Model the fold of this input.
Amino acid sequence: MNLKRAVWVGIVTYILSLIIGIVVISLLGFDFTQSAEIPNSIFLINIIITIIVVALFTLFYLKDKKINQNAKEGFFFGLVLIILGFIFDVIIFSISAAATNTQKNIIEYYSNPLFWLALILFLATTTIVGAIKGKR
Done:
């Protein structure tokens, strides 16, 4: 595994999926300032967006000739993305809570069953993309 490459590709993946998610959600008319609870439909749309972005960036990550293209490499890349996602989520929740002077509960966010579904699909996506690239 090329950890340095995985981290920088992971950072770009997180930022891009966050921006695309915010744009799509805003186009759908959801106002973050009016509602603290994210509707399940919005959560599902974000899952789909994230899976697509993750698949594309997994392909990009695996393009390096020094990296073995296989399911194991895809799985480890997925783990790096999950760790980075957790770190960025903590930072964003902390900044948001400090800026708005409200308690944004990250535990509540992580206790949503759709979050865990997304996490499983996320890791499955990186692993499957790695496996498919390894067969070529």
